[in-house]
Amino acid sequence: MPATVLTTEAARAANIEIIENGIGTQAVHDMVVAMRANRRSGTANTKTRAEVRGSNAKPWRQKGTGRARAGTKQSPIWRGGGVVFGPKPRSYAKDVNKKTRKLAFRKALSERILAGDVLTVPSFDIADGKTKSFVREVTGLVDSAKKVLIVGAKFEDSTYLSGRNVAATLLITADEVNVEQLLYNNKIIITDSAFETLARRTSQ
Fold first, then answer.
1. pLDDT one-digit tens code per residue, 73-82
2. What predicted TM-score, i.e. pTM, was given to this entire model?
3. Per residue, what are the HEC states of the chain?
């Protein structure tokens, strides 16, 4: 199956909006930062002096020992004591408005098209569901790329089955593909069936 480099003219003919100036760079940055922040679990937790287990008894009497006065073994200055200003469970989620998300997606896709990293194929299907067939098909399209993103309107179950063990290649629908995936992969293969959805997602 032949693969063709998607030019800006062909992209515009498919109603995909292309950004050829510096607009959208900050939107891409904001989107990637938000996506990575939203994946953080935020479960780091330390105990304060009030939460550390231990006796409330005074370690030694206040005066006469020659040592510094101490009221509790849970003090942060003691080994095994509480932690001052330590992390507590929290949400790292960042919100990005719809207009910025759309601009970021349009900018990321435009940059990859302008760089010549986007290829088009009529369709992508692996009928026998075998990994060997999947690898042979992808290698025939992009032989030197280490990470490949394949975007289509939908894929058959046999195609998903054949590619699930190929870590360097990702199958994803045009509705689900995101900015980070567009930037991460060396080459992007788009099937003809995905253009309608991508055109909708890049429209202003």
1. 999 999 999 9
2. 0.85
3. CCCEECCHHHHHHCCCCCCCCCCCHHHHHHHHHHHHHHCCCCCCCCCCCCCCCCCCCCCCCCCCCCCCCCCCCCCCCCCCCCCCCCCCCCCCCCCCCHHHHHHHHHHHHHHHHHCCCEEEECCCCCCCCCHHHHHHHHHHHCCCCCCEEEEECCCCHHHHHHHCCCCCEEEEECCCCCHHHHHHCCEEEEEHHHHHHHHHHHCC
